UniProtKB/TrEMBL annotation:
Residues 1-11 have a biased composition (Basic and acidic residues). Residues 1-21 are annotated as: Disordered. InterPro entries: LRR_dom_sf. Gene3D superfamilies: Ribonuclease Inhibitor. It comes from Paramarasmius palmivorus. This is F-box domain-containing protein. The lineage of its organism: Eukaryota, Fungi, Dikarya, Basidiomycota, Agaricomycotina. It comes from the Eukaryota.
Amino acid sequence: MVPSDEEHNGSNRELGYGRSSSPIARLPPEILQGIFEMCCQTNGLHWKDWNTPALVLSLVSVLWRDIALSTSSLWSSLTIDLASCSGRRYHALSCITQLFLDRSKKALLTLHLSLGIRQEPEREELSILDALVQASCRWYDVTLRIQHQSQIGHPVFRPIQGNLPQLQRLAFLEHSWAHNPGFTTDLFSDCPSLSTLVIKPRSVITPAFSIPWQQIKTLRLLRAWPTYALPFVLLCPNIDYLELKEVGMDDGVADEVSLDYSGARIYCRAKALSLYPNIADEVDCIFRHATFPNLSHLQITYGDKFNWDDWNTQFISRCLVNSSCTILSLSFTSVPVRDEDMVQLLRLMPELRTLELEEPPKCNWILTESFLAELHVDHDHLTPTPFLPKLADLKLVVNVNGFDQMAFSKAVASRCLKDVGVDCIQTVEVRFMGDDDGVAGEICTYNLRFLKDTAVRVFVSSLSSPTHRPHC
């Protein structure tokens, strides 16, 4: 058992523990407190392992214990997995849970709770759950891994209804067995501060839940077929940020029609959209079914789990045209899109100010001679519709092999001259993949030396050889 405060302080005095002469002990308490807070962002509570960061820090010395006990935020992050416990071990877990709740005092709580595969909480678990529920007025960031809808319907959770004034982020991440799409609860109906939802569709949560959907500003959906995921987007009319990770159709699925989204077209007011796909349809899915009139920031990051040979930009292009949105920043990471398709897509973004492109490992799909030629501004023969006339920040991650450094430096130079209808570039950042000896970075720095006395910020660096499999 953890010794009481009096026992620990007494033992320290008996052993002569005082202010150590070591450098770390001479740090001001405010600095130590900041270090402790970084160490205690997660406290995994377990019945047999009491080596959680906050507890360890409180047992080192009198000084550290005083700081730990006076800093309630060190004890405010709790990760509890009830599935790892059984029998008399529940008592130990209950004690450490109560200890953290007591020492966190009035601090807002970050809670990660896993209930395991049982359909209802075990009798021994109820004391732990009851202690957490009694502190629900301090719940701030809650992640629930609950596999049965009957678990969240248990009476032990009933007191949280109407007692979640500080809850800002709520996540449901575990796949639910025997998922009932009509299951509902009003436990989270009164959450005045709730603004972020993280959902793995087909978890215990359903669109029938009584949640203040109109309050949600950030919505993240993880790993699901469109028919389960996209209805949640429809429920949140006021989101500013939408993130989809692996939401889409797989061509190899037999029952493809029933798993695709067939509801009303989604009118999404999100200003920022982030996609983390593994296959092409996980990019196209949202653009086939939604309109984004307010979209200004778009990010697509390829997960690199499966083969993805090529991507046709027809759906995203059609969506941008129909949405009449103004894209200000675009970020593509390892997306296998051809240079000519990328050029056509970027022509739909005349107000674009920030462009971030990271090529797939081993070869350059986008940053070819043809693309760099488009990036070059011909001031002698300026067209009425120049390519990316508002571009201010250009950030690239390229493969050393096949990248035309001379064409790139000329393109950058052409954008340092202010002309009618074309803004001057402000930031150029280039990172070279596979530049183990740093030669490519040195060449690039030399080629861009003419920017030294300008207002343009230049950053050039080299990365070691990529370890990912090649895409081409």
